Amino acid sequence: MKGNQYKNGKRKIKKKKNTKTKKTEQKRVGKLVRFVLANSPKKYSGWNNRYSYQSNIHNLIYKGSIFTNDKFQNCIITDCNFKKAKLTNIDFAHCNLKRTSFKGAFLCNVVIFNCNMTDVDFDEAILNNVAFICLNVNSIRNLDLTSDEVKIINKYPDINHIELLNSALSLASFNQYYKYHVLNVTTQKVNNWMLYCLAAQYSSFDDVAKGLYALTRRKDKKGFITLGKYKKHLDSYLKLC
CA–CA separation, 137 vs 145, rounded Å? Predict the structure, then answer.
């Protein structure tokens, strides 16, 4: 009996080690590694400059954590605690955020696009330029819909500005931009929802078109993971900051 337990223990240790080695190798070659964790009593810290695809996290604690320039794509983030967390330049796209709490959190340049927001709580949260796109805001708790810092976009934006569309489409030619699918659905199709959300923050679509086209000539194309990162570039290009 003890011999079998010893063998099983060694198998588990070996399997865990092999899994860790495999994930390390995947990260090294640039492959996406899905993060899966649930029901942990531990308090976790945040991260920055990360693209999370199909991650599955449930009932985790990120209280007081800091997240910067991160995108969550097709992720499950349910019953999580982001109380008093600081989220800057964050995109949630096609995620399930059901029953997650942002009580007392600070959110700046955050986009929540086509997500399940059932019973998501923003009690006492500070929102600075937060966009809710293509989702049911009525299922959200304690969200001040009258705030100028809250943008609701539920009608498909019909963009007729050819230069703006072409500038956004030209970015798909560069994998450093395209792989995060911020402004492009495919190499031949622009994400009108996200492009409009970005461009509507400026007085001239012409200026935004020029600013986006300037990215094609930029040497350092790393880090454009979120809409907030594009906004930071445009603010600098247009000398708004």
Answer: 9
Burial of 103 per CB tally in 10 Å (0-12, 13-18, 19+)? middle
Q: Which residues of 3-17 are buried (b: 16+ CB within 10 A; e: fewer)?
A: eeeeeeeeeeeeeee
Q: 37, 46, 58, 36: which is closest to 105 by C-alpha?
A: 46
3-state secondary structure of 235: helix
DSSP 96: B
Taking the CA atoms of the chain, what radius of gyration do you get in angstroms?
A: 20
- Dist. CA 110–CA 94, nearest whole Å: 14
The tokens describing 234, both together, are 């445009």
For residue 107, give the H/E element and its range: strand 106-113
d(CA 20, CA 153): 41
Amino acid code (one letter) for 222: K
**Rounded mean pLDDT, 147-162:** 97
Q: What is the pTM of this model?
A: 0.87
CB-based burial label for 75 (10 Å; 0-12, 13-18, 19+):
buried
CA distance to 65, 73, 87, 225, per residue, from 90 (Å): 13, 11, 6, 9
What's the pLDDT band for 34 if we cut at 50, 70, 90?
confident
How does DSSP classify residue 83?
T
For the stretch 192-230, pLDDT in tens is 999 999 999 999 999 999 999 999 999 999 999 999 999
